[in-house]
Amino acid sequence: MMHDGRIVMIFLALAILAPPPSLHGAWVTNGVAVCTVPNTQDTPTIAADGSGGAIIVWRDGRTVVNTDIYAQRIDASGNTLWTVNGNPVCTANNSQSLPLTITDGSGGAIAAWQDFRSNNVTDIYAQRINSSGYVQWTANGVSVCTGKVSLTLSQIIPDGSGGAIIAWSDRRNATTDIFAQRIDSNGAAQWTADGVTVCASTGSQVLPVLASDGSFGVIVAWQDNRGGPNDIYAQRVNAAGAVQWTADGIVICNAALAQTVPQIVPDGSGGAVIAWTDHRNTLDDDIYAQRVDASGATQWTANGVGVVSSMAGRQSDCRMVQGASGETIIAWLDLRSGSTADIYAQKVGATGAGLWTTNGVSLSSAPNNQIGLQLISNGSGGAVASWQDERGVSGVWDMYAQRINANGAVAWTTDGVSVSAATGNQTAPQLALDGVGGAIITWKDERAGNADIYVQRVDAAGHTVVATLLQDYSAAANGPEIGIAWTLSETGEDIEFFVLRARGASDAFAEIAAGGSSESRAGTITRNGLSFSFTDETCVPGETYRYRVDVRDGGERKVLFETAAITTPMLESALYQNHPNPFNPSTTIQYYLRDTGAVSLEIYDINGSLVRRLEDRRAPKGLHTVEWNGLDDRGNRAGSGLYLCRLRAGKETLSRKMILLR
Questions:
Q1: 574-660: which CATH number, 3.40.50.970, 2.60.40.4070, 1.10.3720.10, 3.40.50.1820?
Q2: Which residue in 28, 23, 26 sits closest to 447, CA to CA?
Q3: How far is CA 236 from CA 179, 240, 309, in A?
Q4: What element of type H or E holds 109?
Q5: What angle do CA 138, 139, 144 make, to 5 degrees?
Q6: Which of these, 346, 414, 395, 339, lies nearest to 375 by C-alpha position?
Q7: pLDDT digit string (tens) for 334-361?
Q8: Shortest CA distance to 275 belongs to which of 324, 308, 229, 312?
């Protein structure tokens, strides 16, 4: 504690530190409500806003008669930033459905959707929403493709210059074919009206997926039955909308039986890696993959390499993200353990070789089913997965997530961390990177009976951020001590805090205090209603420290906040007032040495006679504590009266008066 009478201290003004994005705000257990108006809100999609938050777009049935498209932005702290329950993106006649969303690269988003404003014909429209929630293009969206038959929107990706590339299938030519369109940042179509023909072969072509070619164009892969059972084909379309490979696409896989539901990511060299569910083994489904270069030449074994091809049970519904240095991470649903689906993942190298455990690493093998898998890059060579999970009660779905590092090690709780376990079902997850190794996850939520949209953030350590607790915090040096204060918005009486400290910029944190309101060697955590404080009394002047405060409120221990580095000021050598004073029978004396050197600490009576020598040594710089038990050098009790404590440190001599009362 700071005591009256200490000689000159240097005071640093209290600084309110800007909390790291993951550490404060409006997040709550089981997720923040994005939209809870009556009737059904579903099919949420999400895009990162570039500032640690995200923009969420969904189908909205609040008008009962038809469904519209709405959007909401949530910041890194869990605050919704636009109109309560969302801003309208499209409220045109009849219904709009199945929105897809990407970032626009400027803090906003571009959304595309299927649109029935033309009555019985499905169209595709798109709209750009800026960071403030205002639509940027024609009211209710610009047309991407209109007037065609049996149109199905499949995917949208950024075009690399503020616009988007969109792919779909339709039956304008009697059979189902693949088309694509590029729109610029102003909403203007850049390719042939109603889309470039990617494939118009015989048979049916469906489920197109897109990967950037790195040159403002795109590589498209799809499921194709021109030759009988479904195969996988691909085509490249350049920035101007011209197809680059063989007309109607090149064969990626035409192995026996069917290959279905392709997925695709860039390979980092102008080509792409494509994976799919493969039925060539008549007993079970497997996951296969192929790499194609920028010229359309396949790079791996003909008809693909087996990502997981020797396990019992079905492996299906894969998802992919681009790894580092030409690597690809592929995750899938896996029935190897029986009749329920688990989540597995594998990393495939640039040559097609599996880099992790043969047949994959388990992300979750919890009881019952894990389905609805979604996957994003974690920004450092690994991935974050999310899914709907019925491990608690069969038929009741909760939301879970897992992170896998670049080396194939799962980083969070075994079988995944709980994102939301609210009543009712949580389904249809979508996720976006939060920019610091974690993810923001949105889903359709039935906790209130009807379907709503909720969102939650999981930080890089796998903690669901429950930041409604934290309203603000501060940290500052006051002389050789550092004080930390924080305020909560709500708490229980049994809340516990854990204060951890690290020296310098890189040392690991070590716990120095714990409890709801308790004392420790370093100091005391004190409470005043919803406000808490802690003063670290063991700092060394001139040293740099970082602090982290964890919280446990009847459940899992979570990070509450982490401070920036704080440096205590250098002080002149000082002798502090003893405490307590007056005293009986003993007292504590503290002194600070600016430099290492010879030191003596002695007690004299009022007549100047030496009573007790407490220190006579070479001492290191820093704060020192000595106890005087009220005895003289012969072991006799000193009498009541006024005494002088004298410190000699180098050429300095410092003195303090103290009173012994018997």
A1: 2.60.40.4070
A2: 28
A3: 12, 11, 28
A4: strand 109-118
A5: 55
A6: 346
A7: 999 999 999 999 999 999 999 999 999 9
A8: 308
